[in-house]
Specification:
Distance between the termini: 36 Å
Strand content: under 5%
Number of domains: 1
Low-confidence stretches: none
Number of strands: 0
Mean pLDDT: 83
Structural class: mainly alpha
Shape: rod-shaped
Helix content: over 70%
Radius of gyration: 30 Å
Order of helices and strands: HHH
Number of helices: 3
Length: 127
Protein backbone atom coordinates (compact mmCIF):
# COMPACT_ATOMS: atom_id res chain seq x y z
CA UNK A 1 0.00 0.00 0.00
CA UNK A 2 2.77 2.37 0.81
CA UNK A 3 4.22 1.83 -2.68
CA UNK A 4 0.89 2.79 -4.25
CA UNK A 5 0.54 5.82 -2.02
CA UNK A 6 4.07 7.01 -2.74
CA UNK A 7 3.46 6.49 -6.47
CA UNK A 8 0.24 8.52 -6.23
CA UNK A 9 1.98 11.28 -4.33
CA UNK A 10 4.81 11.23 -6.87
CA UNK A 11 2.32 11.52 -9.76
CA UNK A 12 0.40 14.21 -7.91
CA UNK A 13 3.65 16.13 -7.38
CA UNK A 14 4.51 15.85 -11.07
CA UNK A 15 1.02 16.97 -12.04
CA UNK A 16 1.21 19.95 -9.69
CA UNK A 17 4.62 21.00 -11.04
CA UNK A 18 3.37 20.62 -14.61
CA UNK A 19 0.28 22.70 -13.85
CA UNK A 20 2.42 25.31 -12.13
CA UNK A 21 4.82 25.45 -15.09
CA UNK A 22 1.95 25.72 -17.57
CA UNK A 23 0.36 28.51 -15.53
CA UNK A 24 3.67 30.36 -15.39
CA UNK A 25 4.16 29.88 -19.12
CA UNK A 26 0.67 31.20 -19.85
CA UNK A 27 1.29 34.16 -17.55
CA UNK A 28 4.54 35.01 -19.34
CA UNK A 29 2.90 34.83 -22.75
CA UNK A 30 -0.01 36.99 -21.67
CA UNK A 31 2.42 39.53 -20.19
CA UNK A 32 4.39 39.62 -23.44
CA UNK A 33 1.17 39.99 -25.43
CA UNK A 34 0.05 42.84 -23.18
CA UNK A 35 3.36 44.66 -23.60
CA UNK A 36 3.29 44.28 -27.36
CA UNK A 37 -0.34 45.43 -27.45
CA UNK A 38 0.53 48.52 -25.40
CA UNK A 39 3.50 49.31 -27.67
CA UNK A 40 1.33 48.94 -30.76
CA UNK A 41 -1.36 51.18 -29.28
CA UNK A 42 1.15 53.91 -28.40
CA UNK A 43 2.72 53.75 -31.86
CA UNK A 44 -0.67 53.91 -33.55
CA UNK A 45 -1.81 56.93 -31.50
CA UNK A 46 1.46 58.76 -32.17
CA UNK A 47 1.29 58.10 -35.91
CA UNK A 48 -2.37 59.09 -36.08
CA UNK A 49 -1.76 62.41 -34.31
CA UNK A 50 1.22 63.20 -36.52
CA UNK A 51 -0.72 62.34 -39.67
CA UNK A 52 -3.70 64.47 -38.69
CA UNK A 53 -1.59 67.50 -37.76
CA UNK A 54 0.55 67.13 -40.86
CA UNK A 55 -2.46 66.73 -43.14
CA UNK A 56 -4.15 69.81 -41.67
CA UNK A 57 -1.06 72.00 -42.06
CA UNK A 58 -0.45 70.78 -45.60
CA UNK A 59 -4.10 71.37 -46.45
CA UNK A 60 -3.89 74.95 -45.17
CA UNK A 61 -0.73 75.59 -47.16
CA UNK A 62 -2.20 74.13 -50.33
CA UNK A 63 -5.40 76.14 -49.95
CA UNK A 64 -3.48 79.41 -49.62
CA UNK A 65 -1.13 78.46 -52.46
CA UNK A 66 -4.05 77.50 -54.71
CA UNK A 67 -5.86 80.76 -54.11
CA UNK A 68 -2.67 82.70 -54.80
CA UNK A 69 -1.97 80.72 -57.98
CA UNK A 70 -5.47 81.14 -59.38
CA UNK A 71 -5.50 84.83 -58.45
CA UNK A 72 -2.10 85.34 -60.12
CA UNK A 73 -3.23 83.83 -63.45
CA UNK A 74 -4.97 86.06 -65.99
CA UNK A 75 -8.76 86.08 -65.66
CA UNK A 76 -9.45 84.23 -68.91
CA UNK A 77 -7.17 81.35 -67.80
CA UNK A 78 -8.44 80.98 -64.23
CA UNK A 79 -10.71 78.02 -65.05
CA UNK A 80 -7.77 76.21 -66.63
CA UNK A 81 -5.65 77.01 -63.56
CA UNK A 82 -8.36 75.64 -61.25
CA UNK A 83 -8.58 72.47 -63.35
CA UNK A 84 -4.79 72.06 -63.25
CA UNK A 85 -4.68 72.53 -59.48
CA UNK A 86 -7.50 70.00 -59.05
CA UNK A 87 -5.67 67.42 -61.20
CA UNK A 88 -2.47 67.88 -59.22
CA UNK A 89 -4.37 67.46 -55.93
CA UNK A 90 -6.16 64.35 -57.13
CA UNK A 91 -2.89 62.79 -58.30
CA UNK A 92 -1.24 63.60 -54.97
CA UNK A 93 -4.17 62.15 -53.04
CA UNK A 94 -4.14 58.97 -55.12
CA UNK A 95 -0.39 58.59 -54.55
CA UNK A 96 -0.82 59.13 -50.79
CA UNK A 97 -3.59 56.54 -50.54
CA UNK A 98 -1.57 54.03 -52.55
CA UNK A 99 1.49 54.58 -50.36
CA UNK A 100 -0.60 54.22 -47.18
CA UNK A 101 -2.13 50.99 -48.49
CA UNK A 102 1.30 49.57 -49.33
CA UNK A 103 2.55 50.48 -45.85
CA UNK A 104 -0.34 48.63 -44.22
CA UNK A 105 0.05 45.58 -46.45
CA UNK A 106 3.82 45.31 -45.98
CA UNK A 107 3.85 45.97 -42.22
CA UNK A 108 5.28 43.32 -39.93
CA UNK A 109 2.88 41.35 -37.79
CA UNK A 110 2.35 43.37 -34.58
CA UNK A 111 2.56 40.34 -32.27
CA UNK A 112 5.43 38.48 -33.90
CA UNK A 113 7.34 37.89 -30.64
CA UNK A 114 4.33 36.34 -28.92
CA UNK A 115 3.66 34.06 -31.88
CA UNK A 116 7.34 33.04 -32.00
CA UNK A 117 7.28 32.13 -28.32
CA UNK A 118 4.08 30.12 -28.75
CA UNK A 119 5.61 28.30 -31.73
CA UNK A 120 8.75 27.47 -29.69
CA UNK A 121 6.64 26.16 -26.82
CA UNK A 122 4.58 24.00 -29.14
CA UNK A 123 7.77 22.54 -30.64
CA UNK A 124 9.13 21.76 -27.16
CA UNK A 125 5.95 20.15 -25.86
CA UNK A 126 4.98 18.36 -29.08
CA UNK A 127 8.19 17.14 -30.74
Amino acid sequence: MSDQQSAREHHRGIAQRLASNLAGLAHNHLSLFGLELQDEKERLVKVLILVLVGAFVVWLGLAVLSVALVWWVAEEWRWAALLGVAIVYLAGGAFSLYTAWQTVVQAAHPFAHTLDELRKDREQFLP
